[in-house]
Amino acid sequence: MKETLLQIKTFFQSVHFKKYARRFGIFILILIGLLLLACGGLSIYFNQNKTEIIAKINTKINENIKGKFHIGDFQYKFLTGFPNFTLALKGVELKDNKWNTHHHTLLKAQEIEARLNVWSLLQKEVNIHKILINDADIYIYKTKDGYTNSNIFKAKKKKSPENKSKPETTIDEIDLSDVHIIIDNQLGNKLFDFDVHSLKSKVDYDEDDWNTDLFINTQINSLAFNTVHGSFAKEKELKGTLSVTYHADKQKIDVSTKNLKIGSDSFDIVAYFHVGKSNSLFGININTRILWSNASHLLSGNISSKLNRFDLKKPIDVNCDLKGDLNVHDDPKIVVQAVAKNNKLTIPDGQIDKCNFRGIFTNNFKPKDGFNDPNSAVILTRFSGEYENIPLSIPQVVISNLEKPIATGNVSSDFDIERLNEVSNEKWIHFEEGHAKANLKFQFDIVDLYINKPRFIGNIDVDNASFHYIPKNVHAVKTNIHLDFTEKALLIKQIAYKHKKNTIFVEGKIDNFLNLYYDVPEKMIVNWKIYCPNIDLKQFLGVLASSQKKKTVLKNNKRTTISNHLRNVIDKCVVVIDIKADKINYNKLTATNTKATISMLDSKLVIKNGSLQTSGGSITFNSEVLPNGKNYAFSSNAQVNRVDIASFLRSFNNFGITSFNPNNIKGRLTSTANVSGFINSRGELITNSMHGKLNFKVNQGALLNFEPIVKVGKFAFPFRDVKNITFSDLSGNLNMRGEQIDVNNLTISSSVLNIDVDGIYSFGRGTNLALTIPLRNSKNDAKLASKAERDAVRERGFVLHLLAVDDGGKMKIKWGKKEK
């Protein structure tokens, strides 16, 4: 290595090398001198021939334009563009002949450099090979009648055969620096506005055809294909190299580019433009991979204002195709295709995770209806994702008429219903287990880009659902539900509802469901048919519990969610139930063959045409039950027909009467009642709460070991069986007033004696009953043929007048008549 460096050093120090180095230096100096002499000569030539050159340039330009060309000054630029002759034109203006009408100057430049071929110039010809335009304004204006100020160049004269081989003056290179370009098309309602920082183009000619690689660095101020709707790519930087080709026979320009930067994103673009007088068709095809928000900001205002309400977290593949006519007032035809994979889609109504779709936007959905918002549509295919944790699959959805959008399509879903717990922030229902499948055809309006009044046709199946309905404290297990949405009604089928030890089979129908659900839920009537093999009514009183209603204040104009709307409908709708039960238990009452029509409005329960069999007889009734604080207020009209009185009294805890118990009486009770009162949360009658009228009659009755009668009988009727008294008549009218009962015309016709009772019976203090007791033996009265005969002998003989009165909370028997 050292030897090599030594040899190099020795070579540079040798006489031979110094000799050639001196000669090379002299050559360079001579070359520079010749260059300076040439430039100086060109400068001298320009100064001597300045007037002639300017005249030729003006002549050359004015020969080819229909307008006015003005140059403020000329300047020769020494050495610039050598070996070409560089001429700087100062204060250049180019106007068309109608400038006084529209006042738009086609070209106004502080400086234009024209590089002329030296050899042509020496031959007295002007041949411009390069134009450099600096600090200029270009305004291309087209009026509504089709006139344009760019139509300033005169038509070329056809070459004669003898001149055909003579080349024309051409401009091989064009450079722009700090040039503001406006293309204002009033005829097509289009406006293109660019601030060109730099543009470089070297043109290759093939007779009348040409092509170039155009480098451009510019800012887009406006790219409006319809100024009413705004600009594409507004305020975006555009930078890249475009391959441009002009076909003279077709009067068409083709443009293509790879990785063209618009803002921070790269685009592959293929485009064409027809530039003939009668043909201004164009087409632009754009390919890119871009974020949704970035793509939206590149579109015109009428589109981006809608797209900005949506977002996709990851970039998507996009292809945009625009086709139109620069001379037509309407928008171009726009078709945008996009592909999203495993993305996160944000929509005004929420968020869709794991989102996949192929999407198409078109502003020409129906080919004959033009390019506009009412004829625009978004078509999504193979859409899948999870909306609020619910999986969705939509083969195709069409959102048409973007002025008043309507979405139609089919949606299917298959999921465990515990996922529904994440749908609502308000915990009004909690799902524990179960599985749901849905297959629905849907249609809904989109108002301000929110889903509004979705309508469904199809079915939803839920299997083995367990849930807790919190406002009513209802807990259901292993419930199956089949919902069938039709155009006229919602059919609810195959519900097997299990609640504690009860199983209920339910079918339902809601007529005009789709309209009433959204507009007037209070008019929606849910018709249920319920069959119960065995049911305990006390366990279902919680269903009537009044959920505490709170006024919901929507913060920041937050919309009502689907969950909140559903809860509101449940609270407002009317529920009508036709119920049939083989067996019903209520406290100690057991009823069979029960039928009733039940209506539920808010928390009010109305029972009509109720009938049941119990205690060996039957009961028909109409009732109302309404939550009242922690209790339930009820009112009822009932007809009791020949029920076993002892069993019946046991079922209702003897109605709170403590002076006798059901073991003291037997017989068949027939009664009519119109009463009201209260039941507690355990389903038990609240003593002293009943009001109303009760008429009753007992057939085949008997009074067994009734203590007050037994006490009297010991000394008054020692020879009569007062422990086993049978009745031929036991009837009366009662007026219940809470704690007290007015006893009117209580008639007892028995085997021991007859008794008539009037007065007040109290569950607490204040009992005052007047007893009229004839002492004669009435054992054989039942054998008399008619009631008149029995009435005639009823009070013969001695008659006792007793009072049963309250004495310190106990009943005391004493002599006396009822006070008037």
From TrEMBL:
PANTHER family tied to this protein: DUF748 DOMAIN-CONTAINING PROTEIN
GO aspect biological process, one term: regulation of protein targeting to membrane
Organism lineage: Bacteria, Pseudomonadati, Bacteroidota, Flavobacteriia, Flavobacteriales
Residue stretches spanning the membrane: 24-46
Keywords: Membrane, Transmembrane, Transmembrane helix
InterPro entries: AsmA, AsmA-related
Record protein name field: AsmA-like C-terminal region
Pfam families: AsmA
Any single GO CC term annotated in Swiss-Prot or TrEMBL for this entry: plasma membrane
Domain AsmA stretches: 26-203
